[in-house]
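Entry type: protein chain
Record version: 2
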Amino acid sequence: MERSVLRVLTCGSVDDGKSTLMGRLMVDGGMVADDHLAAMRPDDDGMLDYALLLDGLEAERAQQITIDVAWRYVASSRRRFIIADAPGHAQYLRNMATAAAASDVAVLLVDATCGILAQTRRHVAILALLGVGEVILAVNKMDLVGYDEAVFAAITESFAADAAVAELRSISAIPLSARCGDNVVSSSAAMAWYRGPTLLQALEAAAASPLESLATNPGRMPIAWVDSSTAGRRRYAGSVSCGTLRPGDAVRVVPANSQSRIAAITTMDGELQAAGPGDAVMLELEDLVDAGPGDVICTGRPVLAATSCEARLIWLAETPPVAGADLLVKLGAGTVAGSVLRLDGANPNAPGILPARIGLRAPLAMTTARESRDLGRFLLIERASNATLALGVIDRVAPPAQDVIWQHSTIDRAARAQSKRQNPCIVWLTGLPAAGKSTIADRLEVLLHAGSHHTMALDGDNLRHGLCGDLGFSADDRAENIRRAGEVARLLLEAGLIVIASFVSPFRADRDLVRGLCPPGMFIEVFVNTPLAVCRDRDPKGLYRRAAAGTLKGLTGVDAPYEAPLAPELELRSGETDAETLAAMILDLLRERGFIAG
């Protein structure tokens, strides 16, 4: 019986011989039509240029390099293959990642004369991240090192160490020469010391995506399209991601949380009594439910509907990532607005991959990538240009609160504010340490109190004495510190107060998160823009002196970043004006915006 189609990726560094190897495999394996063979021209040594079978673009042939991913659909006597030949240049890494996302097996080439290179390690990290099931290390150009077994052993040993760090699960190694045909289709007499399979034998024996094992999971079908062409009926089209769906099964639609039962499962060939992983079907439910593209129809344990996740990003754009930028997050057929809430430092063991926290403005059904390829990976898209910025792989889904409902009070924010004869707001002062935030906040509260206004000041240091006393100053802890402060500020806002918050709050995404907690117009961001030199001279807590002496690490503005507001409601230059005057400028803004009477 013929085995399933195998999706094969070839990757590696520049000039490792990827296109030549796949071309040789196709020719020696009898996978090329006679007219294509006749059109191939020999190279300078009189040998066929096998790379021409893969390099289809005119620019690729002219420069003798691979630029775009070349796709070829071929078959041996035992199996069918979809081959994706990816470029090796660093600037085309996005092309390689795109092809890897849909591959079962990767053939990773290494030039025997060069060994493991930086680009090889980048590809290893991406293959591991995207969960490519099997990796074949093809040590090419063995003819140029005299078919030396010691060279092959040294490369495979080095690769095994990199693969272990990246947590690649299934790897094998084959010494070969694409140009001479050694161990490509037929075993090589020049490398009698190698007793393993040829490349073709390894590919014919490789396992495709394990759809059979997915059949035992809970049933899940992401909706790609809704057919409502027939009045009073809706059919939901998609491919079953995992599990088995049958007519009569109870289902839940996530994130809408609607419930129904499957009335019928249909395809172009008629009705089915069951649909399993990979089946493209249309489901009709017994009830008209609220469901659309991007939602997931589930049996058994449903997927989570979440508004944030921890993920690793393969950054594809030429422009660097910016935390807090307004983006689109596309997961399957669902697209919602979102942003990168936090960017962590790159892992030196996984070059080109950025750990991040992603926030969404509406819930999406999602899982970890380890649980589901379909529901555990997403794209980040720039809103203005619609350009794809990054491919994301979900490591952890932030679970929603269960059985927690907001308790509404009879006396609401407006009633509390009316009794105080003021309109509540949050004045959020941000800036470098020693910029003057706390001093300005104190003077502002004095001015408001003198006008009989009801206020509450929140200071970063004060909160770290109690509520945030368990937090340090790592990126994660800083983000959690601001999240807690924001939630406290929001509750005080509900009390009808004018909240004055002074926090370094170095990351835009964290400040934007607090802004998002507030009704429109009630968050006033004030950037206390004080030059670093002035902050160093002030240094009331001695932080800058300790940082200069090397006894304090991670001080914002010194060896930790500060992301200045892009469009604050007010910018104050503390190095040029006294705190009383600056506080009065905030007071004027509050009058201007109607929070206090003129």
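Comment: The radius of gyration is 30 Å.
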